[in-house]
Automatic annotation (TrEMBL):
Residues 14-253 form the NAD-dependent epimerase/dehydratase domain. Keywords: Oxidoreductase. Gene3D superfamilies: NAD(P)-binding Rossmann-like Domain. GO terms for molecular function: oxidoreductase activity, acting on the CH-OH group of donors, NAD or NADP as acceptor. This is Dihydroflavonol-4-reductase. Coiled coil: none annotated. It comes from Shimia isoporae. It comes from the Bacteria. InterPro entries: Epimerase_deHydtase (IPR001509), NAD(P)-bd_dom_sf (IPR036291), NAD(P)_dehydrat-like (IPR050425).
Length: 354
């Protein structure tokens, strides 16, 4: 759904890291349908359970899919997959909030993986552009950070300074990984780095059992664990299909530069549940009211949510300025209702609530 016209270059293959991921799947789909040869870097190309959906899309598309084995923490493992590619889409990075060792499970793969991929790009003469999937998490940790931003709104000029290994280590991993990317990009002049910073990604997945935290949230909203009420936890949301288009624009709009907040809606958990009510309310125990903040604060730790997180996010409005992405990348966004309904319908079809 892009307004800025750009031509997808099919003359050179492109590399997509983490190609079996939720967001990457839609990027691969759009590229294949545009006729591009896609080098898909995955951990294990022989695991057809993880790659079948990509192969099926390729079979029905004008483009060609080639699978390559690569590992974020193995130096040089992307060299073969990147050889001859004009654009590198680096999407691979762990997205989970339940970790025992944040340094080992989040920081190292995000930061070292980014270094590994971008240093390989420096050594690959064919690469002219790198598109990095960063996150709004590299801009903020908690909705309360919006209040400290200029005019109370997050922009691309803001960097996350409040995440730590102890508090929201996922946000720290995205911040450090993006900073590493800019550092490497600044030390060379062969390729241009363009960064995409999405908020929480929603919408249907192409594979059956996606691992993104977004699906865990919808399972909580529609599965009954929040039927007494959902917190007004301030957050941004964007449809995965619109985000995929943002990646293609970041790759092929000639003037694209810098960071881009890709977020369609300033929203919260209860509003996301309300978007599902019309179509799914009769069959699923969706929350109908806001959970009082004091109750979330009391119950939070037993649900793995720290009291600091409750204090800084519940009943706190999340606000980001998405103007740059709209103007520079020509983005337009689906309604939240459409994204949530399509996501839920796919989860139901895949047996997520059995």
């Amino acid at each position: 759904m892009s307004g800025t016209e750009f031509k997808v270059d099919t003359s050179k293959p492109v590399l997509v890291t983490g190609a079996t991921g939720y967001v990457a799947g839609w990027i691969v789909k759009d590229l294949l349908e545009a006729g591009v040869t896609v080098h898909a870097a995955v951990r294990d190309p022989s695991n057809s359970g993880k790659t079948a959906h990509l192969t099926e899309i390729a079979d029905a598309s004008a483009g060609t899919l080639k699978l390559f084995a690569a590992d974020l923490l193995e130096t040089g493992s992307y060299a073969q997959a990147m050889d001859g590619c004009g654009v590198v889409f680096h999407t691979a990075s762990p997205f989970t909030t339940s970790v025992k060792d944040p340094q080992k499970e989040l920081i190292d793969p995000a930061v070292e993986g980014t270094r590994n991929v971008l240093e390989t790009a420096r050594a690959t003469p064919s690469v002219s552009r790198v598109v990095l999937t960063s996150s709004c998490a590299a801009i903020y940790t908690d909705a309360a950070d919006c209040r400290d931003a200029p005019n109370g709104v997050l922009t691309e000029d803001v960097w996350n300074t409040t995440a730590s290994l102890e508090h929201q280590p996922y946000s720290l991993s995205k911040t450090l990984a993006e900073q590493a990317a800019w550092e490497i990009a600044g030390a060379q002049d062969q390729w241009k780095l363009v960064v995409v910073n999405p908020s929480l990604v929603v919408g249907p997945s192409l594979q059956k059992s996606p691992t993104s935290e977004s699906f865990a949230l919808v399972k909580m909203l529609a599965g009954g664990s929040m039927k007494m009420g959902a917190p007004r936890f301030g957050i941004g949301a964007v449809d995965v299909r619109d985000l995929a288009q943002a990646h293609l624009a970041a790759a092929y709009v000639e003037d694209a530069e810098g960071r881009h907040i890709v977020s369609a809606h300033n929203t919260d958990f209860l509003s996301m549940a309300e978007a599902l009510e019309g179509r799914f309310g009769a069959d699923y125990p969706l929350p109908k009211r806001a959970m009082p903040k004091w109750l979330v604060w009391l119950a939070g730790p037993s649900q793995g949510i720290s009291r600091k997180t409750v204090t800084r996010n519940v009943n706190v409005a999340w606000k980001a300025d998405n103007t740059k992405g709209k103007l520079a990348l020509g983005l337009s966004y689906r309604p939240l209702k459409e994204s949530m309904e399509d996501m839920m319908a796919k989860m139901v079809a895949d047996g997520a609530f059995k």
